[in-house]
């Protein structure tokens, strides 16, 4: 995707040294565009844990490259297994992280230690390229949903929650991929962007990347979605996911479940867009079985923003002494979803629906 006319991916290997890994520091957006150069396993792990890079697909790719960096220091089997475990522990909810590391280990365990670094970089590059291709395909399969909402004389209004754009993937995005595809095709559309407290990924990231691409959008408070649906201002909802069960339950940023309830009450289609790497085929009950990351209470008690004088400041926004809880995700049961959008097409949010697209999983 483009930033001010220049093509970017969210993770890439340095073109000059061919080994260090570059990412966009998402904690600095939208105030400044800063590129981080990762040179060690610990730097990659910190980037994932601190959400300098975030989004289920891209943290899988960054973890894969993090293992490459680790192998440059020690390519022994013992060290490789230990380093993969350390990277895997950085974020518990998104399944793509574990999937990418498992794929790397499967490829590397039978590779001689002397060849592991080269093989690892090749495999990590494949993971990144495949993610970009999968998300472009999600855009193509989601486009008909937006086309079907076109009415003479009015724009299509899409609501999304959190950031599931190209910043959260290697390229294109998941929930935003159909939106970019429709916009590029000339469809008159507009995006309602949930602010997505507590980290404001919608306001800070989704709005920023939509703006850079020229897509009309409006940031709204998280609790405005139901009101907009009641008044006919939302034609469909598209969100991403950090993990989808084999039965179609979807874990996504906290607040997604409430949007799905509002959509059901107002007969608004509610779609989850995700690559197949986000499906956890071992889990059937998302509410009971998906681990929900509990993050620092400071993400709730404090906010960072640009002051009137242009400086960036962090301030406390709740009363002194009040504790805060910060579950990072919730699970939307399959029964509330209109369907799923994957790189192989659309399907009902059900075991049979997913198996229809992925029959090799039967």
UniProtKB/TrEMBL annotation:
One of its GO terms (biological process) is L-methionine salvage from methylthioadenosine. Pathway: Amino-acid biosynthesis; L-methionine biosynthesis via salvage pathway; L-methionine from S-methyl-5-thio-alpha-D-ribose 1-phosphate: step 1/6. Signal peptide: none annotated. Keywords: Amino-acid biosynthesis, Isomerase, Methionine biosynthesis. It catalyses: 5-(methylsulfanyl)-alpha-D-ribose 1-phosphate = 5-(methylsulfanyl)-D-ribulose 1-phosphate; 5-deoxy-alpha-D-ribose 1-phosphate = 5-deoxy-D-ribulose 1-phosphate. GO terms for molecular function: S-methyl-5-thioribose-1-phosphate isomerase activity. The record marks 162 as: Transition state stabilizer. Its EC number is 5.3.1.23. SUPFAM superfamilies: NagB/RpiA/CoA transferase-like. Belongs to the EIF-2B alpha/beta/delta subunits family. MtnA subfamily. This is Methylthioribose-1-phosphate isomerase. It comes from Rhodopila globiformis.
């Amino acid at each position: 995707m483009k930033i001010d006319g220049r093509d970017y991916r969210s993770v890439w290997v340095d073109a000059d040294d061919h080994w260090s890994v570059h990412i966009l520091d998402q904690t600095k957006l939208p105030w400044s565009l800063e590129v981080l150069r990762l040179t060690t396993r610990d730097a990659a792990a910190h980037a994932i844990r601190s959400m300098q890079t975030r989004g289920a697909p891209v943290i899988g790719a960054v973890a894969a490259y993090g293992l490459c960096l680790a192998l440059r220091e020690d390519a022994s089997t013992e060290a490789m297994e230990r380093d993969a475990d350390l990277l895997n522990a950085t974020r518990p909810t998104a399944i793509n992280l574990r999937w990418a590391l498992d794929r790397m280990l499967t490829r590397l365990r039978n590779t001689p230690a002397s060849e592991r670094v080269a093989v690892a970089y090749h495999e990590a590059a494949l993971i990144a390229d495949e993610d970009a291709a999968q998300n472009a395909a999600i855009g193509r399969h989601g486009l008909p949903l937006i086309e079907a909402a076109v009415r003479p004389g009015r724009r299509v209004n899409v609501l999304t929650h959190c950031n599931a754009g190209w910043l959260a993937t290697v390229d294109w995005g998941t929930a935003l991929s159909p939106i970019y595809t429709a916009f590029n095709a000339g469809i008159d559309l507009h995006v309602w962007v949930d602010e997505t407290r507590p980290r404001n990924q919608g306001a800070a990231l989704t709005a920023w990347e939509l703006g850079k691409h020229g897509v009309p959008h409006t940031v709204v408070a998280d609790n405005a979605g139901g009101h907009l649906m009641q008044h006919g201002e939302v034609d469909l909802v598209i969100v991403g996911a950090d993990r989808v069960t084999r039965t179609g339950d979807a874990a996504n940023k906290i607040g997604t479940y409430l949007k799905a309830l509002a959509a059901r009450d107002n007969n608004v289609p509610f779609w989850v867009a995700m690559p197949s790497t986000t499906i956890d085929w071992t889990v059937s009950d998302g509410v009971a079985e998906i681990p929900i990351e509990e993050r620092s209470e400071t993400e709730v008690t404090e906010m960072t923003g640009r002051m009137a004088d242009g400086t960036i400041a962090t301030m406390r926004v709740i009363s002194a002494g009040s504790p805060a809880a910060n579950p990072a995700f919730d699970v939307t049961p399959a029964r509330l979803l209109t369907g799923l959008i994957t790189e192989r097409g659309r399907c009902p949010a059900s075991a049979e629906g997913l198996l229809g697209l992925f029959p090799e999983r039967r």
